[in-house]
Design goal:
By secondary structure, this protein is an alpha/beta fold. The protein has five domains: 132 residues; 151 residues, 3-Layer(aba) Sandwich (Rossmann fold); 73 residues; 83 residues, Orthogonal Bundle (Arc Repressor Mutant, subunit A), CATH 1.10.10.10; 191 residues, Ribonuclease Inhibitor (Leucine-rich repeat, LRR (right-handed beta-alpha superhelix), Alpha-Beta Horseshoe), CATH 3.80.10.10. It contains 22 helices and 15 strands. A hairpin with a 4-residue loop joins β6 and β7. The chain is globular and about 80 Å long. The two termini are 46 Å apart. About 4% of the residues have low confidence.
């Protein structure tokens, strides 16, 4: 059920993207009633709303038929978005080049309307399959995805000696305050609850503590219910009060002049008002009283006075092996060296998460056949036959709590290979180009919304920051990457030299990343005609772009492209001016000598990257036509001067340099027109 909810949320979120476009004033004023019949638009709205309601019912996601149904719906939503975006852009372009539009639709317009009618019917037909698939309504917040935790320590604690001592010191340093709030922060499955259990049962630490309680908060931080559970915890399970005022008064009396230790396990809420309301009775305890939180979010609890946190890192492979072997009863079975070799490779895939090692060890507890252990090793961790697996929910729950647009942004990162060191600013530009973000509110910029989304994903430990002598970068934990890849399904595809022969593209694929040449046989098939993304990814942290090639007709086949990134390019492709939906174009490190004027037809282009194009000395004269351009990167490119009229690019936020020309219309005065330049 958990996987159905999160994949359903991804599909539902994209339905909202299409609905937002349909009701936007720009689309309504320019397209509805002119290019598209109002009745057709209303039919599409109705179909989208009906399909969106069905998505929440898709609890049988493990059912292959339901999975295919969701895939078909997602494909239809993408097609609808592509078509509507194209209609809108074409109408905009025509309005600019002529003042009077003919009252009839031309052949191209009629074909587009026919395609939109077809996709509306597809969505309507999918909605009619509800009864056949047996989909039923489910309350999404009726229960937690995971069983509640308890204060009991269930086994050995491996590899945490240093963490245990650091936490004891942190808690003891709080003895001068009546109330201190501390937290153990870490990604799902890293062992936060296990450490909290150990602390809760540590006799030396609990010496002098009068009252203690263990409360599993989980997803829903209900202040009244949590207060009642604290009272039950310190009163042997008895609490008959319902009034919040009476509950707080009673808790205040219970805690007054007492030293207490309260654990709130698995906390998610960052609501300042809830926290301020909740902690009020706890201010009356004796010095040294503590509330200890475990959380996957760095910002939980920060608003409380006398707050400190401890970030729990992943375990080494050796300690993970100890957990795995313990749960697999490996030492007791005089395990063979062959099984140990396989087991250690399995543990390496756990990437430091003790929960993963524990779960996989339990899975193999009674299994001593080499072929079965190899089957687990070669399989994807998200496809394990584990109906009660704890690994997936431990990470899915973090994803489930994300805003809709952040879900889309996270899944987009599945285009990166594992351990890929990605740049924050580049990823933000890609999110913008793909329209994955929520619309900016008044006073906000799209860049600001993207920055907020990125920072939020970092605070929730989806991304980890790294740094070396030259730069800062970000990476994804391997299991987080597996989660994103699992949720992305066939929508995203990665090609590399090692995988190109065995990797298969799906007709559902919309986003493709590559690091080498894409096989001609793949590009010649009809599976690659609806791409939105063709993203070149360099090998290694400091690798320059290589001579990766694309088959010549791939651009002409994919007219809906929004992101296009090349390896080193020698000749500028003629067909690029047909890509009117393109928002992001990266030609960096190319050997091109001239930027053709046809490039300036890409009126929706937001980002143009021309870094280190050493043979390029002039930009196209018509650059001023790129009225939606927000980022122009020309670092390391030996331009002689800027083209005329650059001051007309009112949306430009980032301009890496400006080469002053000799004329007034390409001189320094042009910078005065760039009102949004940051």
């Amino acid at each position: 059920m958990a996987e159905a909810l999160v994949v359903g949320a991804l599909v539902s979120g994209f339905a909202n993207v299409v609905l937002d476009m349909l009701i936007s004033p720009e689309f309504v004023n320019l397209v509805v009633g002119r290019k598209l019949d109002r009745k057709l638009v209303e039919r599409l709205k109705t179909a989208l709303l009906a399909a969106e309601a069905l998505v929440a019912d898709a609890k049988q996601f493990g059912n292959d038929r339901v999975r295919k149904w969701l895939d078909s719906l997602r494909d239809a939503l993408y097609t609808a978005d592509d078509l509507l975006d194209r209609v809108f852009i074409k109408t905009e372009i025509r309005n600019k080049v002529r003042t009077h539009l003919p009252s009839f639709l031309n052949l191209s317009d009629r074909k587009m309307v026919t395609k939109i009618e077809e996709v509306v019917k597809t969505i309507e037909d999918l909605e009619k399959l509800k009864d056949t698939l047996g989909l039923e309504k489910i309350p999404t917040s009726s229960s937690s995805w995971r069983p509640p935790s308890t204060s009991l320590v269930k086994g050995n604690v491996y590899g945490r000696d240093g963490d245990q001592q650091a936490l004891i010191k942190m808690l003891n340093d709080n003895n001068d305050h009546n109330l201190s709030v501390s937290s153990i922060v870490g990604m799902g499955g890293v062992g936060k609850t296990t450490l909290a259990q150990w602390l809760f049962n540590n006799k030396d630490l609990m010496d002098g503590v009068d009252l203690k309680a263990w409360i599993c908060v989980s997803e829903n931080f209900d202040v009244v219910e949590t207060t009642k559970n604290v009272i039950k915890g310190i009163s042997s399970g008895v609490c008959s009060l319902d009034s919040f005022d009476l509950l707080q008064q009673h808790l205040k009396e219970k805690l007054s002049e007492k030293k207490f230790f309260i654990v709130l396990d698995d906390v998610w809420s960052e609501d300042v008002d809830k926290w301020n309301s909740f902690v009020t009775p706890f201010q009356h305890g004796r010095k040294g009283s503590t509330i200890l939180l475990t959380t996957c979010k760095e910002n939980v609890g920060r608003i409380v006075q006398h707050y400190n946190s401890y970030t729990l890192k992943e375990l080494s492979d050796d300690y993970c092996w100890s957990i795995f072997a313990d749960n697999a009863s490996f030492p007791e079975s005089n395990g063979s060296s062959e099984l140990e070799e396989i087991g250690r490779k399995i543990v390496k895939r756990c990437d430091g998460l003790p929960l993963a090692a524990e779960t996989l060890g339990c899975l193999l507890r009674s299994e001593r056949r080499v072929e079965e252990w190899n089957k687990i090793l070669s399989n994807d961790i998200w496809e394990f036959p584990m109906p009660n697996s704890k690994i997936v929910p431990a990470l899915l729950i973090s994803y489930y709590h994300l805003p809709e647009h952040s879900k889309r942004c996270f899944v987009y990162c599945s285009l990166y290979p594992k351990d890929y060191q990605f740049d924050k600013d580049e990823l933000i530009l890609l999110w913008m180009a793909e329209n994955l973000l929520r619309p900016p509110k008044r006073g906000e910029t799209l860049e600001g919304v993207a920055q907020e989304c990125f920072d939020d994903l970092v605070s929730r430990l989806f991304f980890k920051q790294g740094e070396d002598y030259f730069r800062k970068y970000f990476v994804m934990h391997d299991l987080m990457h597996d989660l994103g890849t699992s949720l992305a399904g066939n929508l995203y595809c990665k090609f590399s030299e090692e995988l190109s022969e065995k990797e298969e593209m799906s007709i559902l694929t919309r986003h493709l990343s590559y690091g080498d040449s894409i096989p001609e046989k793949i590009c010649s098939s009809n599976k690659i005609e609806s791409l939105r993304t063709l993203l070149y990814l360099e090998h290694g942290a400091y690798a320059r772009k290589g001579l990766a090639t694309l088959p010549g007709d791939i651009l002409s086949k994919n007219k809906y492209l929004r992101v296009l990134s090349f390896g080193r390019l020698n000749i500028f492709p003629d067909s690029i001016d047909k890509l009117i939906q393109l928002r992001y174009l990266d030609l960096s490190w190319s050997d091109i000598v001239v930027l053709p004027e046809s490039l300036c037809k890409l009126c929706n282009l937001q980002t143009l990257k021309l870094e280190y194009c050493f043979k390029l000395t002039m930009l196209a004269n018509g650059m001023y036509k790129l009225v939606n351009l927000r980022h122009l990167d020309i670092r390391g490119t030996p331009l002689k001067e800027m083209p005329k009229g650059m001051g007309k690019l009112k949306q430009l936020h980032i301009l890496s340099k400006f080469v002053v020309g000799k004329q007034e219309d390409n001189g320094m005065e042009e910078l005065g027109g760039l009102l949004n330049l940051h």
